[in-house]
Write a structure and sequence with these properties.
The complex is a heterodimer of chains A (258) and B (245).
Chain A (H helix, E strand, L loop, with lengths): L1 H10 L2 H41 L4 H16 L2 H20 L5 H25 L3 H10 L3 H16 L1 H14 L15 H12 L3 H30 L11 H10 L4
Chain B lengths: L8 E10 L2 E11 L4 E5 L6 H8 L7 E6 L2 E2 L5 H6 L1 E4 L11 H11 L5 H14 L15 H14 L4 E5 L7 H16 L3 E5 L3 H7 L2 E6 L2 E6 L1 H6 L4 H10 L1
Parallel strand pairs in B: 3-8, 3-9, 6-7, 7-8
Antiparallel strand pairs in B: 1-2, 1-4, 4-5, 9-10
Helix pairs in contact in B: 3-4, 3-5, 4-5, 5-6
Classes of the chains: A mainly alpha (258), B alpha/beta (245).
C-alpha cells in the first residue's frame, strides 16, 4: 500500500498546501485576476471592433478582420505569448522603462482572445433578423445608429454564454505568462504552485493552484448554463411582464408558437 | 382618429435592377395627399421592393420620388424616412425593449424628446391602437395582431406624412387580421396618405381610393377599386383576380 501513500502525499501533502496558501491568496490570485480581467476587457473591445469590421460593407476591413482572426485563432497561445513578450518586450521596456512582463502578457492574451471574441460577436450580430435593421432604418436611423442601438445589443445578448466561456479560457491561459519570466511579486497562481512543487518535491503546490482555478472556473461554467437556460426559455418574467392567464391559455390552446 | 398632416407621394418612372434581374421597370405611382393607394399583384411582382425604393431603403437606379411635390432623391435618406412610416409583414418590433420603449425609442433618439415626454407621447399612440395597458410588457408576450398594432403606433409616433404597409396582415392568424385592417381603415379615414401592399382584396376594394396592379416589375393596370375589380381590362389582371378571389 506504499504506492497509495506516496500518491496521496504527492498530490495532497496538506502541510505543503497550507504553506502555499498565503502566497496564493495575496499574490497569485490577484495577479491571475488582473491578467484575465484586463485582457478580457481589452479583448472584448478589440473583438467588437473586429466583429464590426467582419460584417462591414468595406471589403478591406472584412479582409483585415478575416486574416487577423485566422492568424490568432490558428496559433498556439504559448507561441503568441512568447513571440509578443520576447519580441516586443525589449522595445517596450526601452520606451516606457516598465520592466514587468505584464503589459506584453496582457497584450498577447488580448490579441488571442479578441480573435475568438470577434467571431463570437460576429455570429451573434449576424443572427439578428434582417428585419430589425430594416425597421430601425425605416424609422429614420442611419446604418451606424441602427447597428449600435438595435442590432448589436440583441446580438451581444445572444452570445453572452459564449463570451463567459471565453473569459474562462482566459483565466486558464493567463497561466502561460510564466514563460515570460516573473519576479516573485509578479507570480500568478500557476507559477506559485509550480515553484512550491519544485521546492517541496511533490505536486501539492500545483494541486493548490488547481483548487484556485476551479473555484473561479466552475462557478463561471454554471453561470454560463444559467444564462443559457434563461435565454432559451425566455427571461424570468418580471411582474410587469407576466402574461395574462387567458393569453397563455390561448397560446397553449392553439399550439401557436412556431 | 385625429387628422394627420399628410403629404402627397409620387413615384416617377422608377427602375431598379439587382444585377441582371430587373425588379422594377418604369413604375409610376401617384398618391394624392390624404388618399390610400393599394398595390396588389402576385408575389415577386416587385410590390414590396417598390415600397423600399420609395423610402430609399433601396436606392432606385432611375426615376424620381416626390414627397409633397418635391423630389427627395437628393435629401438625406434618413431624414426622408422619418417622414414616411413603415409597417412590415413580420412586425419587426424590437424584442429587447418594452412595448412602450418600442414606440418611444425614435422619439427619444431622433426627435430628442426628454424621457417623460417621449413616454407620454408613446402612451398616447398606444392608446390610439388600444394597447396602452401593454406598455410595460415585452412584444413577445403579445399576439401577432397586437404586435402589429404596436408597430403601427411606433410608426405613427414619428408623425409621418405618409404610411407604408408591406403585407401588414400576411403573417397574422386569420382571426387577428380584422383588427389590424380596421385600424388601417381608421387611419385612411382620418386622412393619412397610405400606400398599402396587400393580399387583402376586400380591404383594397373597400378602403383604397386607387388600386394598382403590378406584375413582373411593371404597373399593368391601375384605377379606382370599382374599375379594377369589376371591370379589369387586361388578361393578366383578370387571371390574377380569378386566382385570388
Amino acid at each position: 500500500m506504499d504506492y497509495l501513500n506516496n500518491l496521496g502525499e504527492t498530490f495532497f501533502d496538506w502541510r505543503v498546501i497550507g504553506e502555499v496558501l498565503p502566497a496564493m491568496f495575496t499574490v497569485g490570485l490577484p495577479n491571475t485576476i488582473v491578467l484575465a480581467l484586463s485582457s478580457g476587457i481589452i479583448g472584448t473591445v478589440l473583438g467588437m471592433i473586429l466583429a464590426l469590421m467582419g460584417i462591414s460593407r468595406n471589403p478591406v476591413a472584412r479582409w483585415i478582420a478575416r486574416v487577423y482572426t485566422d492568424v490568432f485563432r490558428g496559433l498556439p497561445a504559448i507561441l503568441t505569448i512568447l513571440a509578443v513578450g520576447l519580441g516586443f518586450g525589449p522595445a517596450f521596456r526601452e520606451l516606457t522603462g516598465v520592466t514587468s512582463p505584464y503589459p506584453m502578457g496582457v497584450a498577447a492574451l488580448s490579441l488571442i482572445s479578441s480573435a475568438y471574441i470577434g467571431e463570437i460577436f460576429r455570429s451573434g450580430i449576424q443572427s439578428v433578423e434582417k428585419g430589425q435593421l430594416e425597421a430601425a432604418r425605416a424609422l429614420g436611423f442611419g446604418y451606424g445608429p441602427s447597428m449600435r442601438l438595435v442590432v448589436v445589443p440583441q446580438g451581444v445578448r445572444r452570445v453572452l454564454p459564449a463570451l463567459v466561456n471565453q473569459f474562462i479560457a482566459l483565466i486558464k491561459d493567463s497561466s502561460l505568462v510564466f514563460t515570460l519570466g516573473l519576479l516573485a511579486s509578479e507570480r500568478e497562481l500557476f507559477q506559485i504552485g509550480q515553484d512550491k512543487a519544485a521546492q517541496s518535491g511533490n505536486l501539492s503546490g500545483l494541486v493548490a493552484a488547481a483548487i484556485f482555478y476551479l473555484a473561479m472556473t466552475v462557478p463561471l461554467t454554471h453561470l454560463v448554463n444559467w444564462i443559457d437556460a434563461r435565454l432559451r426559455t425566455g427571461r424570468a418574467q418580471s411582474r410587469a411582464e407576466k402574461q395574462e392567464p387567458d393569453e397563455v391559455a390561448a397560446v397553449v390552446g392553439k399550439g401557436a408558437h412556431e | 382618429m385625429s387628422q394627420f398632416s399628410s403629404g402627397s407621394l409620387e413615384a416617377k418612372a422608377i427602375h431598379l435592377a439587382f444585377g441582371s434581374n430587373k425588379v422594377l421597370r418604369g413604375i409610376d405611382l401617384n398618391v394624392p395627399a390624404g388618399t390610400t393607394a393599394s398595390v396588389i399583384g402576385p408575389s415577386g411582382s416587385g410590390k414590396s421592393t417598390l415600397l423600399r425604393v420609395m423610402n430609399r431603403l433601396i436606392e432606385p437606379d432611375q426615376g424620381d420620388i416626390l414627397l409633397d411635390g418635391k423630389s427627395v432623391l437628393k435629401d438625406n435618406p434618413d431624414e426622408l424616412r422619418r417622414r414616411i412610416g413603415m409597417v412590415f409583414q413580420q412586425f419587426n418590433l424590437f424584442p429587447h425593449m418594452t412595448v412602450g420603449d418600442n414606440v418611444a425609442f425614435a422619439l427619444r433618439k431622433l426627435r430628442k424628446l426628454p424621457k417623460d415626454q417621449a413616454r407620454d407621447e408613446a402612451l398616447e399612440q398606444l392608446d390610439l391602437v388600444g394597447l396602452k395597458h401593454k406598455a410595460d410588457v415585452r412584444p413577445a408576450t403579445l399576439s401577432g395582431g397586437q404586435q402589429q398594432r404596436v408597430a403601427i403606433a411606433r410608426a405613427l409616433a414619428m408623425k409621418p406624412e405618409v404610411m407604408f404597409f408591406d403585407e401588414a396582415t400576411s403573417a397574422l392568424d386569420p382571426e387577428l387580421v380584422k383588427g389590424v385592417l380596421a385600424l388601417m381603415a381608421d387611419l385612411a379615414k382620418g386622412g393619412m396618405t397610405m400606400v398599402v401592399v396587400t393580399h387583402e382584396m376586400g380591404f383594397s376594394r373597400n378602403v383604397s381610393d386607387t388600386v394598382t396592379f403590378m406584375d413582373g416589375g411593371v404597373v399593368v393596370e391601375s384605377g379606382a377599386p370599382g374599375q379594377i375589380f369589376d371591370d379589369p381590362r387586361t388578361d393578366r389582371l383578370q387571371r390574377f383576380l380569378s386566382d385570388v378571389l
